[in-house]
């Protein structure tokens, strides 16, 4: 499946495009799927819980509040996501272990990198609407990402 977000925008003018600022870090540079949302701030406990569950080709959209003070994803969680069938993660925050994540079969878009891990306090919300980059992400909607950007649709889009 090849995802080209400019083509999706041309074919579906109703879809929403996320404001620029995200970078591709994963070993898969284009990905998409049904949205599962996590809202957390400098605590990736819920992310850790979710990557341990079957992903069924879905994309986890993580609203980390844009924090650049800690990483919400590292190599161990990325590898767990791959082994459990997640298509990718879009993180409004930072990640770490980018050299390893860049070799995983996982799509990962984030704002940047930070070497420090988060504290684990079990704080966060699952499957609530989250807003960043000028777009609201709803659980059950669809997100598609490539090196051109990130787009969101209420329904699945044909990407072949």
Automatic annotation (TrEMBL):
Q: Which residues bind Mg(2+)?
A: 97
Give the molecular function GO annotations. 4-hydroxy-4-methyl-2-oxoglutarate aldolase activity; metal ion binding; oxaloacetate decarboxylase activity; ribonuclease inhibitor activity
> Which EC numbers characterise this protein's activity in its record?
4.1.1.112, 4.1.3.17
Please give the catalytic activity noted in the UniProt record.
4-hydroxy-4-methyl-2-oxoglutarate = 2 pyruvate; oxaloacetate + H(+) = pyruvate + CO2
Query: Which CDD domains does this chain map to?
Result: RraA_family
Q: Name one GO biological process term.
A: regulation of RNA metabolic process
Residues bound to substrate are 74-77, 96
- Keywords of the record: Lyase, Magnesium, Metal-binding
Q: Which cofactor does it need?
A: Mg(2+); a divalent metal cation
State how it assembles.
Answer: Homotrimer.
Q: What does this protein do?
A: Catalyzes the aldol cleavage of 4-hydroxy-4-methyl-2-oxoglutarate (HMG) into 2 molecules of pyruvate. Also contains a secondary oxaloacetate (OAA) decarboxylase activity due to the common pyruvate enolate transition state formed following C-C bond cleavage in the retro-aldol and decarboxylation reactions.
Q: Which family does the entry's similarity section mention?
A: Belongs to the class II aldolase/RraA-like family.
Which NCBIfam families is this protein grouped with? NOT-MenG (TIGR01935), PRK09372.1 (NF006875), PRK12487.1 (NF009134)
What the entry lists under PANTHER family is as follows: 4-HYDROXY-4-METHYL-2-OXOGLUTARATE ALDOLASE 3-RELATED, REGULATOR OF RIBONUCLEASE ACTIVITY A
Q: What is this protein called?
A: 4-hydroxy-4-methyl-2-oxoglutarate aldolase
